[in-house]
Request: fold
Amino acid sequence: GNSVTQMEGPVTLSEEAFLTINCTYTATGYPSLFWYVQYPGEGLQLLLKATKADDKGSNKGFEATYRKETTSFHLEKGSVQVSDSAVYFCALSGNTGGFKTIFGAGTRLFVKA
Amino acid sequence: NAGVMQNPRHLVRRRGQEARLRCSPMKGHSHVYWYRQLPEEGLKFMVYLQKENIIDESGMPKERFSAEFPKEGPSILRIQQVVRGDSAAYFCASSSKNVLTFGAGSRLTVL
Reply:
């Protein structure tokens, strides 16, 4: 079945550092890939998405590229801010049988001033 | 557009009681998903519903848990005879195409 594996956290960075959170997936067919972010006490919010190979999703300085050859969708940001502290979830959704979305375990990011 | 509305936000139950969690999807969305998040863990899919139909319940425990999404009114996740292990945050989401919009969650604590 479909699955998502992402790097364990927590990840602790200083402000303005470079961020990478690794994500790999297993899926049949051609899934859509997502990063969601969860701030304390809140539900998840869509951060970015990519629907086909080589697509790059981007939002708020975050980027991720859909790499079919390595089945990866790593999240990157060039310069993190304290306000980026949150839990980040990589996810995939198949394109058949509804839009059930499978999530990775989440990676907690702490950014220090 | 009020987004996905979940209530109650916090619910405390004693072992053996019933918990009912409600979810109203975004206006115009007819698909509802329920997920469970245990402390320091990711989201686990429970069930996917359309109006009056359960499409996929592969993540639902076989006993004590049920879900419905009636023609009128919110979707309801029902947990009978709760146990301490049911303590978690339960998130509802609705979808337009394949992007999920989440509610703020209902946090169940079983004493």
